[in-house]
Design goal:
The protein is mainly alpha-helical and 233 residues long. The strands form 3 sheets. A two-stranded antiparallel sheet has the order 1-4. Strands 2-3 form a two-stranded antiparallel ribbon. The protein has a two-stranded antiparallel sheet with strand order 5-6. Helix 2 runs antiparallel to helix 3, helix 4 packs antiparallel against helix 5 and helix 6 crosses helix 7.
Length: 233
């Protein structure tokens, strides 16, 4: 059964249908969205491919169409486009409805979070997923603090908070599986690579991974929106 493919389709279906709604006009912003997704996906797919090849995580064939690019199934590749498409849609919908895009200073929060993540990485050098996701997220947050000018930080975090509801549903199915199809989950993890602390069946690392994935997409999305806006003037 094509469980993983169906999850991707269902995740993107409603945001896609509402992309043509006049107030949000998400389709009109695809020019900025698609390069943002492509750049972010290139980074995550390289990371994902390496970890899959190394056995840090993997996929149960019973849930797949079994079309692969290297070590990655088609569904996993689509994941890095369907999920960002839907989550950036939430962000854009909140941006359109927000009275102001001004944001309180987030640098202290981001810097503190980065320090805590580095400390977590140092304490878990033997757990490769924990170590990697903590260090990469910390580096990205510090880049925001030092270099990047991203004003709608509050809107992004509100959008991310909303996205946790579908995240828990989708990742819950991926990490639990469907017993009528297979006793194994759709996506499995090497226990030695993670903390083995979970919310439901979702590893804590996946929450941070999702945060980084969406934050990177939104950062590139805002960059390209500003770029194209300045070119049109």
């Amino acid at each position: 059964m094509y469980t993983y493919l169906l999850l991707n389709i269902l995740t993107v279906l409603v945001p896609f249908l509402f992309s043509f709604e006049k107030k949000i006009a998400y389709a009109a912003k695809w020019k900025a969205l698609f390069p943002a997704m492509a750049l972010t996906a290139a980074f995550f797919l390289a990371w994902d491919h390496y970890f899959t090849a190394a056995g840090v995580w993997g996929f149960t064939e019973s849930y797949l169409v079994n079309i692969y690019a290297g070590h990655l199934p088609l569904e996993e590749i689509l994941f890095f486009f369907c999920i960002p498409y839907s989550c950036v849609f939430i962000y854009e919908a909140l941006s359109v409805s927000a009275k102001s895009r001004a944001s309180r200073p987030w640098a202290p929060f981001l810097a503190l979070l980065a320090v805590l993540l580095v400390a977590c990485a140092v304490a878990n050098t033997g757990r490769i997923y924990t170590l990697t996701v903590c260090l990469i997220t910390a580096a990205f947050l510090l880049a925001h603090v030092v270099f990047l000018k991203f004003r709608p930080m509050g809107i992004f975090h509100a959008a991310f908070g909303i996205s946790l509801v579908p995240f828990l549903i989708v990742n819950g199915i991926l990490t639990r599986g469907i017993r009528a199809i297979s006793a194994a989950p759709v996506v499995w993890y090497d226990p030695a690579a993670i903390l083995n602390l979970r919310i439901g069946t979702v590893p804590l690392e996946d929450f941070l991974y999702s945060y980084l994935l969406i934050f990177m997409n939104v950062t590139w999305y805002e960059f390209f929106k500003r770029k194209f806006r300045s070119e049109e003037r």
